[in-house]
Structures are given as C-alpha cells and as structure tokens.
Amino acid sequence: MELYLDSADIVEIEEAFKLGFLTGLTTTPTFMHRGGVKDVDSLIVKLSKIVPVLQIEALGDTAEEVLAEAKRQLDLGLDPKKTVFKIPVSLEGVRACNMLRREGLLVNVHLVYTLQQAYMAMQAGASYVCPLVGRLQDQGHDALSLVEQCVFAVDHYGYDTKVMFSSVRTAEHVRNALNLGVHTITAPWKIMKALTENNFTTVGTEQFVEHTRLMTVKVKNVVDTVNPTVTDDTPLVDAIVKMTEFGFGAVTVVKKDGTLVGVFTDGDLRRKIQQEGRDVLKKNLKDFEYGKPVSIEGDALLNDANALFKKFNVDTLLVTDNGKPVGMLDIQDMRANASK
Hints:
The chain is an alpha/beta fold. It has helices spanning 10-16, 29-34, 40-48, 63-74, 91-102, 115-123, 133-138, 143-157, 171-180, 189-194, 199-216, 236-246, 266-276, 302-312, 331-338; strands at 2-6, 24-26, 54-57, 83-88, 106-112, 128-131, 162-165, 184-187, 229-231, 250-254, 260-265, 295-297, 316-321, 324-330. Strand 4 (83-88), helix 5 (91-102) and strand 5 (106-112) form a beta-alpha-beta unit. Keywords: CBS domain, Schiff base. Residues 223-280 form the CBS domain.
C-alpha cells in the first residue's frame, strides 16, 4: 500500500521525507491557506523538488479550464511523471480527468462521497479515486463501507485505478485502510508519527537497554566520584548534615589514618532512633558497631552490583579501587544509569 503525507507545512514535510520510504505528498489549497502561503506556484515548485510524487489541485469551471491549469502548472517546471493532478469529482471533473489521462497525465479524482461518483472517476480512467473517510464519518455515513465498495469495484471490474483512503483522523483509520485492502493512503504527519508507538514496545525497549547496560557498563563509569567520608570521632549530627549536603543516603566512616571502619546509612539512623530514641543524636560514629560493608570494585559490571543489591538486600554499595574506598553506588542511581 502506498503511503502519502497529507500536508502543506514545509517543516514537517522535510522532516517526514527523511524517512526515505514515503510514496509522495498530497496537499490542498485549504492547507496552504491555513499555513499563510502567499505564492502558491513557488511553493509547488519547491515541494516538487523535495518529494518523489506531488499531488496538487487543478481547478476550473470546465474540463478545458482544468486541462489548461494543469498544463500551466507543468510549465512551472514540474515533472509530468511525478505530478498527479487532483480534480474534485463532477461531470466536468471526470471529463477533465479523461482528457488529462489521454495526454498521459496522472489524475486523482477526489472529494468522493458515493460509489456512483467513484465509478464515474474509474470509468474516466482516474489514476486515483479518493473517498474522504473522516469527513463522511463526521456526517454519520458508513465511510468504511464506501471504501470497501470502491476496492471491490476496482478489483472486480479491473479498473486501472488506485483507491486512496483520505481524511485520516486517527491511527485506527490506517488499520482500517490496511484491512480494507486499499491501494494507497494519505495521512497527516501527527498520525504517521504515532503509527510506530505502543506502550508494550516502549517497555520492552527500555528493558533491553537496561539489561544491555547492566552487562556492559562498569560501576566506575556511573558512580559519583564524590565520596562523603567522615572520621569515626565525628558526631552523628554532623554526619547527617554531611549526607544531606552531598545528597547521599550514607557516609563512609574511616579512622584518622584512613583505615575503613564501615558505612553508616540513613537506614541505620532510622533503626538507631527507633531503638534508642532522640538521645542517639548525641553520640559519635565510633559509638556504633559496624559490620563489614558490602563493597564492589569499580571495574565490576553493573550486573554484578545488581546481584549484590539483591543478595544482601542493601540500598548502597561501597565502591573500591584495589580495596580503597572511592565512592558509593546507590541502588536508585544504578537503576537510573542502567535505563539511560
């Protein structure tokens, strides 16, 4: 199924065609008017140099006027093999369609609201016939049934016409078009951008990124090099202030000679207050007992750190370089870095 962009916004047109696989562009005088276009011919020429196929309006009260307008636009320098002239369906419109097709030019008969209109366009040799699904549904009509009938007519009678699904309002319309077997669809950029989105895809991608980083990124590449360290004779209150200043949930406690004593965490603080009350705040860090801190070498992978977090049920790991404390890895920081 061909995929056209429906727009006159030069910024989004340039962005959309970076995809590299769009069939072409459909545009309308209404789009141009809304965009404040003042020189239609200049815009048409510019667009023709950006997109593979350009579908533009050719208007006139009679078939002869439509034919003259199409030729005038071609004289601007448009490639007749890459230009499709859009003509509103009418008796003069289908006559103009037939005249243009006899000269080898491409035609899209659009603003189609009934199967009878589509039939006349097909009989006239239209390259495209274009039912407006969104507009029909706005009026309470069964637009999808009309599209289905148009596709059937092309296939059953062997018309050399492509049914274009247009007036696309939702991503669901694109699914409808695919299910109905239309030959081409033209959609706004905002709808087109949403076609690859799905929450399950997003979640799965995030998991793949996280797991890849866990297996390839080293602890030292994500750990904060700032390591809040205090000596064991530091008052507990001062240690709390230091944790707050550095935004860490723990401090490394060392002796005056730099020998590691242990790690004091905000979890330890909560437990001490629960056990001893507010009087614990009068103590120094050397008044507490420390178990051996859970540590990890900076050259280890985040995957190894993740395993330690789970095994020891801790929130912070002491990061070392050849056994010397160089920083701390918080479980939330690790998760944040793994998902980048």
